[in-house]
Specification:
about 325 residues, alpha+beta, Metallo-beta-lactamase, Chain A, 11 helices, disordered N terminus, binds zinc ion
């Protein structure tokens, strides 16, 4: 069962633009424009999407357990849908990690919800900038100008976060609609509500220091954001090496599940998608390192390095260039 709540011409145009646009535009603003939909995954588990990112929620007789809010506008829409369709309210919001393109918007649910995250989320939200944004403050003055807002995940978001309408973004503005967690955990945690259970699992540092994988044991499903993808590339390695991703993804693979839901993309996957994604990273890093060892420049690597078997994934050429560049910078400490 699935239904489409709203489709707009803007959404269609943006999907077309996604295939040709820059890395940052391809990621798009959280929860903002165009198409939104709720998809029934299985049992009481649903996925909610805009055209750039996904979240999940579990409906129980005593309320809803939601993962990322995906922005204020999206959260307002989702709150209405949950009221109208399920006659329910959100009792828990569980952050996948602190990056604002997923975590912002929780203020919409603050009247009914308890907020839960990994313990590292508190420090990450209280840092001068989120870990995927700090590099943009080039002069280190604690403010990001519109022209500086270039990091993946921030495309088109200046006005979204610019609460006071001035010429700069501060970290407080970026996290201003992200309630700090009421409850944190370190390794694992379980939440029960209305006879259903959600397990939280920290796979270790990869993509960010505060990652949470949500496990839905009755639905045999997991939800994870940005550290793995389903037949799709990440927008950034976020400064983590291959070993970090291998450790985290291998720990996830030890869990008991069948269904794999990701924070981006329109495919709900299965267990086989995790080794498939890891296989891309295991091709990326060593082939860049081998090229450097053979004396190849970044330009030569971008010209020569292809990944057979992954060329039919969405945004292949666009992401290939960005990810090779990042792996090169990591390997050469730039
Ligand atoms: Zn992220």
């Amino acid at each position: 069962m699935s239904f489409r709540v709203a489709t707009s011409l803007i959404g269609t145009l943006l999907v077309v633009l996604m295939s040709v646009s820059s890395r940052s535009i391809a990621q798009g603003p959280p929860g903002g424009l165009g198409e939104r939909e709720i998809i029934h995954v299985t049992g009481n588990l649903y996925e909610a999407r805009d055209q750039f990112r996904n979240t999940v929620f579990l409906v129980t007789p005593e309320g809803v357990i939601l993962s990322d809010p995906l922005g204020v506008a999206f959260a307002r829409w989702l709150k209405e849908e949950i009221t109208e369709r399920f006659d329910s309210t959100v009792k828990y919001v569980i952050y996948s990690h602190h990056h604002p393109d997923h975590s912002t918007g929780g203020t919409v649910f603050a009247d009914t919800a308890i907020f839960i995250a990994h313990e590292n989320t508190i420090a990450a939200l209280n840092a001068p900038f989120p870990s995927n944004a700090g590099q943009m403050d080039l002069d280190g003055d604690g403010r990001i100008e519109r022209a500086e807002l270039t990091a993946p995940g921030y495309g088109g978001t200046f006005d979204l976060y610019n609460r006071n309408g001035d010429s700069y973004l501060t970290g407080d503005e970026i996290t201003g609609d992200t309630p700090r967690p009421d409850i944190v955990y370190s390794e694992r945690m379980s939440i029960t509500l209305g006879g259903s259970r959600v397990d939280l699992f920290h796979p270790g540092p990869a993509h960010s220091e505060d990652m949470t994988i949500l496990i839905f044991p009755e639905e045999r499903a997991i939800f994870g954001v940005d550290l793995y993808h389903v037949r799709r590339f990440g927008v950034s390695l976020n400064g983590y090496d291959l070993e970090a991703y291998e450790n985290a993804i291998n720990r996830i693979q030890e869990l008991d599940f069948d269904i794999v839901i990701s924070g981006h993309g329109d495919i709900i996957g299965d267990r086989s998608d995790l080794p498939l994604f890891l296989g891309f990273l295991q091709a990326l890093y060593p082939s860049v390192a081998a090229g450097i060892a053979a004396g190849e420049s970044l330009e030569e690597l971008l010209e020569n390095l292809e990944f057979p078997g992954y060329q039919d994934w969405l945004l292949y050429e666009n992401r290939r260039v960005g990810l090779i560049t990042e792996a090169y910078e990591l390997a050469t400490n730039q």
